[in-house]
Every structure is written in structure tokens, then in C-alpha cells.
């Protein structure tokens, strides 16, 4: 039983950690591309900014879903019988 709980804790840490790294890299790449495109065509900056914020919300939503799954495993563990 302790082995299962230890592995679940390790899995929760991996889910949250890798999700945070992925979301951070994704938002950083998207922000860099936004700055490049707004420097090339400043007249499209408002439209690009709107789309960038929508995509940033979707990237963060994917990370928060991973956090919710990790919390599910941590507190309502389906693997313990």
C-alpha cells in the first residue's frame, strides 16, 4: 500500500512539473513570435494580441487540467482499494 501511495505522489509531481514546463515553454515561444510579427506588421498588432491572449488562456487551461488530475490522484486516489 505504501508503495502505491509513493508512486502516486511521484506521478502527481511529474504531472504538475512537466505541465508547468510545457506551459512555460509554449507561452514563451508564442510571446516571442507575437513580438516578431508585431514588429514586422504593426498594423496587425491588435488582432494578433487578441489571438495571443486566447491561446495563452488555452495553454494555461491545459496545465490546470493536469493539476486537477494530479489533485484527483492525490486526494481521491482510485488506485487504492
Automatic annotation (TrEMBL):
Compartmental location: Cell membrane
Record domain V-ATPase proteolipid subunit C-like: where: 10-73
Alphabetical list of Pfam families matching this protein: ATP-synt_C
Keyword field: ATP synthesis, Cell membrane, CF(0), Hydrogen ion transport, Ion transport, Lipid-binding, Membrane, Transmembrane, Transmembrane helix, Transport
Transmembrane residue ranges: 6-31, 52-76
Primary location group: membrane
GO cellular component labels: plasma membrane; proton-transporting ATP synthase complex; proton-transporting two-sector ATPase complex, proton-transporting domain
Membrane topology: Multi-pass membrane protein
Positions marked as site (Reversibly protonated during proton transport): 60
Molecular function, one GO term: proton-transporting ATP synthase activity, rotational mechanism
Entry-linked InterPro entries: ATP_synth_csu_bac/chlpt, ATP_synth_F0_csu, ATP_synth_F0_csu_DDCD_BS, ATP_synth_F0_csu_sf, ATPase_proteolipid_c-like_dom, F/V-ATP_Csub_sf
NCBIfam families: ATP_synt_c (TIGR01260), PRK06876.1 (NF005363)
Biological function: Key component of the F(0) channel; it plays a direct role in translocation across the membrane. A homomeric c-ring of between 10-14 subunits forms the central stalk rotor element with the F(1) delta and epsilon subunits.
Family of the protein in this entry: Belongs to the ATPase C chain family.
Protein name, UniProt field: ATP synthase subunit c
Recorded name of the encoding gene: atpE
Amino acid at each position: 500500500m505504501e508503495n502505491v501511495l509513493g508512486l502516486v505522489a511521484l506521478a502527481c509531481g511529474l504531472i504538475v512539473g512537466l505541465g508547468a514546463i510545457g506551459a512555460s515553454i509554449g507561452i514563451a515561444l508564442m510571446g516571442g513570435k507575437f513580438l516578431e510579427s508585431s514588429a514586422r506588421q504593426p498594423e496587425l498588432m491588435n488582432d494578433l494580441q487578441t489571438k495571443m491572449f486566447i491561446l495563452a488562456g488555452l495553454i494555461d487551461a491545459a496545465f490546470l487540467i493536469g493539476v486537477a488530475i494530479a489533485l484527483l490522484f492525490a486526494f481521491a486516489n482510485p488506485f487504492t482499494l
